[in-house]
Amino acid sequence: LQAYERRFPTCPLIPMFVDSDIINEHKNEDGSIHVIERRCKLDIDAPRLLKKIAGVDYVYFIQKNSLNRRERTLHIEARNETFSSRVIIKEHCSYTVHPDNEDWTCFEQSASLDIRSFFGFESTVEKIAMKQYTSSIKKGKEIIEYYLKQLEREGITSVPRWTPPDAHKPKCGTSQPRRPASLAINIPDSAAKEGSSSKEIPNTSSGPSETTAETPDDKLDADYIKRYLGDLTPIQESCLIRLRQWLQETHKGKIPKDEHILRFLRARDFNIDKAREILCQSLTWRKQHQVDYILDTWNPPQVLQDYYAGGWHHHDKDGRPLYVLRLGQMDTKGLVRALGEEALLRYVLSINEEGLRRCEENTKVFGRPISSWTCLVDLEGLNMRHLWRPGVKALLRIIEVVEANYPETLGRLLILRAPRVFPVLWTLVSPFIDDNTRKKFLIYAGNDYQGPGGLLDYIDKEIIPDFLGGECMCEVPEGGLVPKSLYRTAEELENEDIKLWTETIYQSASVFKGAPHEVLIQIVDASSVITWDFDVCKGDIVFNIFHSKRAPQPPKKDSLGAHSITSPGGNNVQLIDKVWQLGRDYSMVESPLICKEGESVQGSHVTRWPGFYILQWKFHNMPACATTNLPRVDDVLASLQVSSHKCKVMYYTEVIGSEDFRGSMTSLESSHSGFSQLSAATTSSSQSHSSSMISR
Q1: Residue 562's closest CA among 554, 553, 570?
Q2: Rg of the chain over CA atoms, in angstroms?
Q3: Distance (Å, whole) CA 69 – CA 84
């Protein structure tokens, strides 16, 4: 104890321990119990920015030391006083005599950490706390031995053992009158560890697989960031954690990988609101067009394989996958006339999906984060033919789609042998290219790419393509003119375009105030299973399911001028006649389900009767506050989000026969979020005939 007490009021061996004051001290009558409570001032090794945001330079802990001379124990308890409403830190240490050898002192230490909220820096605070805790464990034995030796140098080599004031002889079992002060400290294996902590150091052994049930802080330790994400500031890391946590709360199950989320954050300079908006739009787009499966389900037409002069070719000096495009040798007009815009767009999307896959592979191969690729564009042969208006229009649309859904995937664009006509093309396309992307463009005219600062600065000499003067054979098709015999009429191309982008199991619909969207499902056999999967893309809606014994009138489109929509996504069908009465002409078989903007909803209903079932998506009117006439802030904000009283949903429905459904018919629940295809899973529950799961 004498050695331990020398750590106060401050300890030079613990630089962060600035000062301490005794705030309470107590001794019992016989002197066997001595309790000291101190307020300790600590200078935590934390980023200056974090301290500035938190508004503190030092943090304070309350430490309580309880010495029991009779039992020969010392218990030390510590808790944080600063930010105690946001972070709860508790630590307990004990010094005891070994039960089998009185010459041994046992030391045990444990701690718990509970971070409720900390300005969005929860992960950073946890890492700082774990770092300080680990450091204190390593130095604990070193510090106590330092002060023991200091006592020896001062001639204090033994301390009398405590005895009761009225006792003249030591009790049995404590016959040694004096005890050396410099006792060897034996720490058992179990005590040498970090103790039982309620927060474990994040495990980094797993790869960058898709996150499912992990908490937002599980993977973001220093090793994981360095290995898979690259350099992140504390604020950038906090933005990633917060956006990922929001996705986990709103879309349970499969969510995008950290690398994918990070691309959208970087594209919007880590503005969470802007990044969340474009990310949600992109995820909805991917789901609607099943882009996740494009590499497995779509085979490019032979015309593309023969005449599209582009392909993957090794990697650059930074390990990025290298894509080579011989644009000057490509007959863009012929490809558009033979295939149409949609086939070209889908092919470019497949190239981007392959690029993402190659980035993941190269990350594993090179042992560092590679999240983008390099594109080498050879413009030799570019002429006015490439400025054909429909071709430029197709190019601009492709750029628009790629910019919106694959941000920050282009690491560098090398444009070689730019001819005189290039500035004209650049003037047309540059306004559609993001400023951050334009900064990655390097343009070389003529043979400038062969000189200093040219191609050799970015690509190894051994893999420079042969058509650029290198020695590496490049398997990229040479392009050439597409035979006019392969051209198709505008009608054929239009039908093909519609076919390409309607190859989706999802449909879109608009919902207006006073004009719900309704889907009719006829059931012949009772106990069939109606399943649904929908995303609320805009506004808040109420989802209902009704049953009627008689068929409603043929569907009628909404004829209101203000609601008329010409796009395929503007479908609005109303089935329930206004003269029908609920309870007489039709009945409600499900409780209304309020669904907020951005939510994904999956569920199912086991039908009890044959007849006609109507799935309805209705505009959600904000309820008035019951206790006051003043509108709530949440209501006002929500009303602002639903412009012109219009909502949008993207939905899919399917009927499964009872004989085809595997599982318990008493409870059905979809286990996937809106980011994956509809699937059914079963769980056991009480006598329920339907269930819905909202991914909030």
Answers
A1: 570
A2: 35
A3: 32
**Per-residue pLDDT at 89 exceeds 80:** yes
For the chain, the domains span 1-154, 222-289, 292-485, 506-552+571-622+643-663
Q: Is 670 exposed, middle or buried (0-12, 13-18, 19+ CB in 10 A)?
A: buried
Give domain 292-485's CATH architecture.
3-Layer(aba) Sandwich (3.40)
Buried b (16+ CB within 10 A) or exposed e, 211-234: beeeebbbbbbeebbebbbeebeb
Supply 584's token pair.
């007489």
In whole angstroms, give the CA distance from residue 129 to residue 147.
26
Inter-residue contact 322 to 314 (CB < 8 Å): yes
Task: Find, among 248, 302, 303, 254, the residue nearest to 276 by Cα.
Answer: 248
Domain 506-552+571-622+643-663 CATH class label: mainly beta
Taking the CB of residue 564, how many other CB atoms lie within 10 A of it? 12
Strands (E), 342-457: 373-378, 410-418, 441-445
pLDDT tens digits for range 315-373: 999 999 999 999 989 988 888 888 888 888 889 999 999 999 999 999 999 988 999 99
| 122 three-class SS | helix
Beta strand pairing status for 87-97 and 373-378?
unpaired
In the beta sheet, which residues pair with residue 317? none
Structure tokens, 431: 């306004």
- Provide the token pair at 589: 């078989």
Each residue's pLDDT tens digit, 28-51:
988 889 999 999 988 877 766 666
What whole-number distance in Å separates Cα of residue 350 and Cα of residue 612?
A: 41
Task: State the CATH class of domain 1-154.
Answer: alpha beta
What residues have CB less than 8 Å from 690, skipping those under 6 apart? Answer: 545, 589, 590, 603, 604, 605, 606, 668
Long-range CB contacts (< 8 A, 24+ apart) of 7-16? 7/143, 7/147, 8/38, 11/143, 13/139, 13/142, 13/143, 13/146, 14/136, 14/139, 14/143, 15/43, 16/42, 16/43, 16/44, 16/45, 16/132
What helix, strand, coil percent values describe the chain, rounded to 5?
Answer: 35, 25, 40
Question: How confident is the model over 574-598, as a mean pLDDT?
Answer: 88
Domain 1-154 identical in fold to domain 292-485: no
Give the pair of three-digit tokens for residue 59.
């943090």
CA distance 82 to 88: 9
Of the CA atoms within 13 Å of residue 489, those in its CB half-sphere come to 3
CA nearest 128: which of 115, 116, 110, 140? 115
State the distance between the two ends of the chain, measured CA to CA, in whole angstroms: 55
The CATH T-level fold of domain 222-289 is: Helicase, Ruva Protein; domain 3 (1.10.8)
For 491-559, the DSSP string reads: HHHHHHHHHHHT-SS-EEEEEETTB-EEEEEEESSTT-EEEEEEEEEES-EEEEEEEESSPPPPPEE--
Q: Which residues have C-beta within 8 Å of that of residue 27, sequence separation ≥ 6?
A: 33, 34, 35
Residues 6+ apart with CB under 8 A from 613: 520, 521, 522, 523, 530, 545, 546, 547, 589, 605, 607
pTM for the full predicted model: 0.50
Beta bridge partners of 641: none
Q: Which residue(s) pair with 538 in the sheet?
A: 648
